């Protein structure tokens, strides 16, 4: 009799464990027979597979354990680029769509996903307006209509500012939302350290403790170390001939611009003529450039230097976004630059076009 009781207790315990908080992802993806679907997330710069299942006649079910908090992940079809994003949480989530347009799949069952989609809907009018302007810009640019291109650039900047403000408002008004960390992480690429820190401080304690926000806090600390008024951290990297060059070896004779760029970066290549102009006019007065490339292929890097006529020192470890100097300077978007005085103190950041020219002219303009 005791054995029967023990078995009954064990059965109850197992049942209680299986009925605890957990997630279930059900997929109904047309055209996906016998395809393995993966639930994946990015963590510490790496892609991690959480779970997977093989579809049968377009359907699959993934049953997992408890997730500690709603988190943004991706559903990926096999080894393809076909995927869609969703917030995974402890609920039954259904994904309905077609393999050919997986990114458009309908997702139901996740409250956090509903919240995110509501935010996207509120931003749709502006995003559609921005997309239209970009299309018109590309057409005008191709036609060589400089006047229209300039006008459209201003319009695009204005709409982008509105979109950014809308996102900031969402984060400030939703401090307990699990959507806020992703939005803030995206915004942080265009924000300075004090503003990021202020927005983090406005988040609920539980949200501020999430890994994504912890990473942002670490980035803020690095950003503070390379803010205006700080001494530029030294680093050594190989030049185009494979010879190591220290940043400190280029400091001391005047102004030095640390210019982060890459051959594959369109905006960087567009900005290069502006840097060349400043270099040509002020080099003899004490202005120099120290180019740091985030390229992967030496031949691409070398060709871009020649094509854009960049007549200054260039270094790279050819590690793409893992470039050691870029990490040291909290560079997550390029072009990016830091202007140093003759003592190696940072006196300007991300100065482009006329802003770079005016700053250099302010310091060196009166010299002969």
3D structure, described in words:
With 368 residues, the chain is of the alpha+beta class. It has three domains: 22-106, Carboxypeptidase-like, regulatory domain (Immunoglobulin-like), CATH 2.60.40; 113-225, no CATH class; 236-364, Glutaredoxin (3-Layer(aba) Sandwich), CATH 3.40.30. The protein is built from eleven helices and 15 strands. The protein is elongated, with a radius of gyration of 26 Å. The model is unreliable at 1-18 (pLDDT under 50).
Could you give a quick summary of the protein structure above?
With 368 residues, the protein is an alpha+beta fold. Helices cover 43% and strands 23% of the residues.
Helices and strands, with pairings:
Elements: H1 2-18, E1 24-30, E2 36-43, E3 46-54, E4 59-63, E5 71-77, E6 83-88, E7 92-98, E8 106-108, H2 111-143, H3 146-173, H4 180-187, H5 193-201, H6 205-208, H7 211-225, E9 236-238, E10 244-246, E11 255-261, H8 266-282, E12 287-293, H9 298-307, E13 313-315, H10 324-328, E14 336-340, E15 346-349, H11 353-364
Parallel strand pairs: 1-7, 11-12, 12-13
Antiparallel strand pairs: 1-4, 2-3, 2-5, 5-6, 7-8, 9-10, 11-14, 14-15
